[in-house]
Amino acid sequence: MAARNVVVAQSGGPTCVINNTLRGIIEACFADPATFGAVYAGRFGIEGVLKEELIDLSASSAEEIALLRTTPAAGAVGTCRYKLKPNQEEDFERVVEVLKAHDVGYFFYIGGNDSQDTAYKVSQRAREVGLDLVAVGVPKTIDNDLGDDQFTLIDHSPGYGSAARYFANYILQANEENAGSRTADPVLVIQAMGRKIGFIPAAARLADPERRLPLQIYMAESKLTLEQLGQNVLNQLERDGRCLVVVSEGFDVGEFGVTRDAFGHIQFSASQTTVAQVVVNYLNTLKFPVTGKARGQVPGTDQRNAMAYASGVDLDEAYEVGRHAVHLARTEGTGYMATLLRRRDTRAYQVIYDKVPLDKVAAFDRSFPERWLAPNRIDVTDEFLAYAEPLIGGDWVSVPQVKGRARFARITPALVTPKLPAYVPQTHRLKPE
Question: Which of 44, 76, 201, 400 is surrounded by the fewest CB atoms within 10 Å?
Fold first, then answer.
């Protein structure tokens, strides 16, 4: 059988390690030219496929591909938040036309639950129209909400371990600030990403597994009120004279102005105000038993792209899951997501790489287990710590440097020659007056 061309793309919020997954796919495809022909990247995800903007990855040197290992975020080939919805028939037809026009036989889509839904829909449509296409999903999300609540479909998503490592170290540094400035700023409120899923704020406890710090964690799953939060902080101030408050961006503080992305998810960091600011404002209406006021910090996209804090475990797993996706495409065919599962038959942390049908993970949000919430609702259990601690790795990752500056990959933006008329994705079209 003649080699068929490849399209790899990604969507959703990027991570520290997403480019190492991309690298794993590229290098595995390049290593098997008898099966995989030209390897293209969809520029800005599925939007690049719709617009027929395909980057020829062979135009980039092996050195640049290798540098993807420690290149964060999505600058290499771009990402998107474009969703293929059931009523967008023209979009589906266009995807098929573009893949046919460029003899694409393999489609890899890196992302979270909505991205796996896109991979599933592309796989289904290809089957319906008789297109010989193998579509494979590849997991990625810092939120760790991909999969089922029993952790049998995927143990954790590449990207989460690095976000958890970032937040654990952020809390350690914030504690030094709070301990030294407690006379003026006894309460420090820190907002964590994760929408309404608590895996990232929960990682704050990794900074202090012995529970020695005056640390309180408020996830959306905590189901506490702003007034309860305030009373907890006052009690902590009575005991310790200071308090670190970690609050999820999805913690319920009542109505405030929000914006949404194309997937329909609330973009808390892009909204008119923040949960942390609401909490700070409320706390500063209370009478503290110590001097000073509350102040807040909202680390932004640094939580998902600070390569200096990347987990080595996360990087290695991200690469291997990309390579495994290529193995699945070669041996199992279409309609699967590459997955990683934790071995339960050994005390040492180990994972195995497997597969799961795309329809089992498409557009499904995993929740933070209730059993991992402490009885006081402002902490997590040791069972969560045992789950999360291996994911953040040990030593610091070595990032190539040139004159003290990080040397990131620079993928040559060599677009293939279009073979079809120009196309505007349906969602981007202006509505008639």
Answer: 400
Annotated binding site for diphosphate: 13
Strands 215-218 and 187-192: unpaired
Q: Which residues are catalytic?
A: 143
CB atoms within 10 A of CB 40: 25
* Paired sense of beta strands 294-297 and 187-192, if any: parallel
- The pLDDT assigned to 429 comes to 86
SS in 3 state form for 342-362?
Answer: ECCCCCCCCEEEEEEEHHHHC
Task: Give the pLDDT confidence of 345-391 residue by residue, as tens digits.
Answer: 888 999 999 999 999 999 788 999 999 999 999 999 999 999 999 99
Give me 229's structure tokens.
């939060």
Q: Hey, what's the torsion of the CAs at 315, 206, 270, 366, to 10 degrees?
A: 70
Distance of CA 80 to the CA centre of its chain: 13
State pLDDT tens for residues 30-54.
999 999 999 999 999 999 999 999 9
Angle at which helices 312-331 and 18-30 cross, to 10°:
40
The arrangement of secondary structure in 4-159+309-365+393-428, i.e. its CATH architecture, is 3-Layer(aba) Sandwich (3.40)
- Homologous superfamily of 166-306 in CATH? Phosphofructokinase domain (3.40.50.460)
